[in-house]
Amino acid sequence: MRSAKEAGLRELLGQRTKEVEEVVERYLPEEAGHQRIIFEAMNYSVRAGGKRLRPMLMQETYRLFGGSGQEIEPFMAAIEMIHTSSLIHDDLPCMDNDELRRGKPTTWVKYGYDMAVLAGDALLIYAVETAIKACAMAKDVAAVAGAVGILAQKTGIYGMIGGQVVDVQLTNQPVPREKLDFIYRLKTGALLEASMMIGALLAGAGEKELKQVEELASLVGVAFQIQDDILDVTATTEQLGKPVLSDEKNQKTTYVTLEGIEKARRDEAKFSDRAIALLKGLPGENPFLEELIRMLITREK
Ligand code: GRG
Which of 32, 102, 105, 237 could bond 49 through an S-S bridge, CB–CB 3.0 to 4.6 Å? Predict the structure, then answer.
């Protein structure tokens, strides 16, 4: 049975998720014009659901550092657009070839391969167009420019895309632990780093604090990906809203195949504890953020 504390947290998580969804929704494009199909495909993919973890981590880190303005909102929408664009491309026949995502047909199944490629491209660049809107809302425009830089760098060849490149290149090959760590840090960790760093930067964090946030978010990213690997072998399609045993199907080396499930569980707890210890060393307090990080490794979807 769930404790009262756990039930309270779940309720708070539900409320915060709703708040984040309202922000993201406000920045989605209107579905009109000759290119209407692309707006529909973009909105379909973003609205399909998901945990909204990245914008939530961004907003909570912003709050941790005392942020209270509106300029965080375009960035919250932008990070969810980028994340969704990566999911659209990840599901394509040339990548994981998956037909179900967030409990719904994947974008390529619904709109065709060609439109799904374009929807991924479109969300990626529309995220930048969206983030830039923060200039009109911020007192510190230089911080907004810095945040756009983080967004681009952590998404690109030194971030998520770089990690995916190595992941794809090593499909069907033995992957040593050192390369797996590289893939996880970039493919999954980089967008979580961007989320928390942008929240910190826009709330006025300094260089040293930004580095600390980067380090803790990287640990959260690795723990999060290990849980993703564990769920791929322990959860059901209904729970995840996507096919299970997908790593096996795609002959992917994962933390679980490399280290075994028990060690995977121990290590993810270790990474998560280390992240929380770093969080506690930062100025400011946000108990919900701490609980959110804990929940990531006990999540069931
Ligand atoms: C077009 C920007 C762009 C990128 C192409 C395909 C690709 C490069 C990168 C794939 C990156 C990827 C899918 C990493 C896996 C990260 C991960 C664990 C995703 C699942 O995130 P959740 O659980 O998903 O937060 P929800 O659905 O809850 O949002």
Answer: 102
